[in-house]
Each structure stands twice: as structure tokens, then as C-alpha cells.
Amino acid sequence: MLITRRTFAIGALSLAGATLLGPALAQDASPAISIKKDPWCGCCTGWARHLERAGFSVDVEEIEEMEAVKTSLGVPAELRSCHTATIDGYVIEGHVPAEAIVALLDQRPQVRGLAVAGMPIGSPGMEGPAGSEPDQYAVVAFDGSSDFVFMRFAGHQRV
User: Considering the entire predicted model, what is its pTM?
Assistant: First the structure.
């Protein structure tokens, strides 16, 4: 088969277009996560960066009345943390690792959302100094009637 300059040029342009547009198209395919956070909280910004590095499209809105947001989304008082997000119909409360959010979206359990209560040291956005031991913590699935441990982590590592 003879390859002409025209065939070669079309093939090269198609390959270049796929290389340049492929990541953008893949990123658009994943649902966007909408984060609501206190304007003065730095760890929330760190968590948003963690999600961006994991490939999520992130939208951050700064709100001073976070308790009202949590109440309106049905986050139980005992599971509250510093920021609240929504993604594809689910609520994400606190420093939930991206790996747990991906699993939630893959498995689609009948829950309202996931939460990491408090602010565990070593969780995404709450990284301590290099060499420090991260806390072990649970990612809890909640639905308003019963909660259960969805995953466990030590820092960013699933245990």
C-alpha cells in the first residue's frame, strides 16, 4: 500500500489531535465535584488540589455559613468536618480520599454520601510534616438511617 503525503498528513494531524484532546475529553467525562468551604480554611484547598491531581474537575465556592450547607445536605452532626462537596448526586464530607470517591461512583451504593469525621492527620489536605505517622481513619457511608464503614485509610493509603 502506497502512503501519499496527503494520507500521511491527515494521519499525523489525527494523531496530534487525539493526543491533545484525549486528556480533555477524558476529564470532561468524569463528573465535576462542587466543593463548599470556609474562605479561611487552608486544608480544604489542599483537599481540592488532591482531587484535581486525581483527575477530578473541581469547582470551589467559599461560604462562611458552612453549618447551614451541611444541614441542608443532611450531613449527620457526628460526621461533620470542615468542607462539604457534592458529586453526581452524592455528598462528600471532609477529607475523603479520591480513591474512596472513585469507588463510590463505581459501586453506586444507596447512600447519601461519604464522610471523614474531623480532620485526621495525614488525610488528603491534612498532611503532616515529612516522616510523621498518619492517623488511621474510617470513610463512613451515611444515608440518614444507618452508617457503615465504606473504607479505612492511614493517611492516603487504604488499609
Answer: 0.80
